[in-house]
């Protein structure tokens, strides 16, 4: 592995803890103005110092994030679909490695859709990106995306997630981002590169912290989490609580207290889409689906079930 690639990886996974809290705010690449991210600058900039990396698209980076922000950047480079399509797997590489270098990114993220109609194409995207990325010392994070075509049961199954994660590693991904599932150790234990957990739909805060703890205990090196932070009623509280679990190894009760303290102090951060503020996360209308997405009243189409 080249010095540059290792150096960039060390800006994603902290050498002092061997762990990472990546803040995923790339949802707009096919969802448009997702609840909680309508104004990316307001939602992301105040939280950036507390995250180890920001994962986002080049457009949001260039337009909404000041170039003085010091948090390392991972760019989402695949896409080409919108939530209006049935098949989300028809992705291509939208942002070049040269552009990632120009923007001083420390990594590139793309989705692979194992078992979906465009599986082959997305795996070819991965192979190409790893080849080009390694030429320039740029790590690749493969996201095991599921899309609409695959049922929830199979895609939350350890056999499926182990298959998708292992395939990503076989083609050279340096980090794999995947979902938590029962028997998660089977996924982390058979993937030869570090795994970060995607947060998934908005949950009640304590449940999201339990998920984080379970993922870390199950062998993940960290999280690449979005909605459970920026849709919380205290995004900063959740960021700090998740980070304390990941980097300090604290338990769920202590982490929940960190979240509550921030919330009480009113330093919640700028996000807090309606999902977290309403009881939706606790079983209300959005809980099992879009996590309290804005839906009809919001600015976007709000269907983030396939993330
Ligand atoms: C989608 C992604 C998203 O960044 C990610 O899934 C969003 O994070 P979260 O699920 O925690 O909102 O990579 O393929």
Quick summary:
The chain has 14 helices and ten strands. It has 307 residues and is α/β, with parallel strands linked by helices.
Report on the structure:
Helix 12 packs antiparallel against helix 13. The chain has one domain: TIM Barrel. The longest helix is centred in the middle third of the chain and has 18 residues, at 119-136. The strands form two sheets. Strands 1-2-3-6-7-8-9-10 form an eight-stranded parallel β-barrel, surrounded by six helices. Strands 4-5 form a two-stranded antiparallel sheet. Residues 272-301 have low confidence and may be disordered. The protein is α/β, with parallel strands linked by helices and 307 residues long. The chain has helices at 3-12, 28-31, 40-44, 58-64, 97-102, 119-136, 152-155, 158-170, 184-189, 205-217, 227-230, 235-248, 252-265, 274-277, and strands spanning 20-24, 53-56, 73-76, 78-79, 92-93, 107-112, 140-144, 175-179, 195-198, 222-225. 40% of the residues lie in helices and 13% in strands. The protein binds ribulose-5-phosphate. Ribulose-5-phosphate (5RP) binds next to helix 11.
């Amino acid at each position: 592995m080249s010095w540059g690639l290792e150096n960039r990886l060390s800006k994603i996974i902290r050498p002092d803890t061997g762990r990472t809290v990546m803040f995923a705010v790339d949802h707009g690449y096919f969802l448009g103005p997702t609840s909680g991210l309508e104004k990316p600058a307001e939602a992301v900039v105040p939280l950036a110092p507390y995250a180890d990396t920001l994962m986002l698209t080049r457009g949001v980076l260039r337009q909404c994030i000041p170039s003085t922000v010091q948090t390392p950047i991972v760019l989402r480079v695949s896409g080409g679909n919108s939530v209006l399509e049935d098949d989300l797997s028809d992705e291509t590489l939208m942002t070049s490695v040269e552009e990632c270098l120009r923007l001083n990114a420390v990594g590139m993220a793309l989705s692979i859709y194992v078992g979906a109609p465009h599986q082959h194409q997305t795996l070819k995207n991965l192979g190409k990106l790893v080849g080009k990325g390694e030429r320039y010392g740029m790590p690749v994070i493969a996201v095991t995306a599921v899309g609409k075509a695959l049922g929830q049961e199979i895609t939350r199954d350890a056999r499926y997630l182990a298959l998708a994660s292992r395939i990503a590693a076989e083609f050279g991904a340096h980090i794999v981002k995947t979902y938590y599932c029962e028997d998660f150790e089977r996924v982390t234990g058979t993937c030869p590169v570090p795994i970060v957990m995607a947060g998934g739909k908005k949950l009640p805060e304590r449940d999201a912290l339990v998920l984080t703890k379970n993922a870390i205990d199950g062998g993940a090196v960290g999280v690449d989490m979005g909605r459970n932070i920026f849709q919380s009623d205290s995004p900063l509280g959740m960021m700090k609580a998740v980070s304390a679990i990941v980097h300090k190894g604290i338990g769920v009760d202590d982490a929940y207290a960190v979240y509550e303290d921030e919330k009480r102090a009113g330093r919640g951060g700028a996000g807090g889409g309606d999902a977290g503020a309403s009881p939706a996360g606790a079983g209300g209308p959005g809980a099992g689906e879009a996590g309290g997405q804005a839906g009809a009243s919001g600015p976007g189409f709000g269907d983030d079930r396939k993330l």
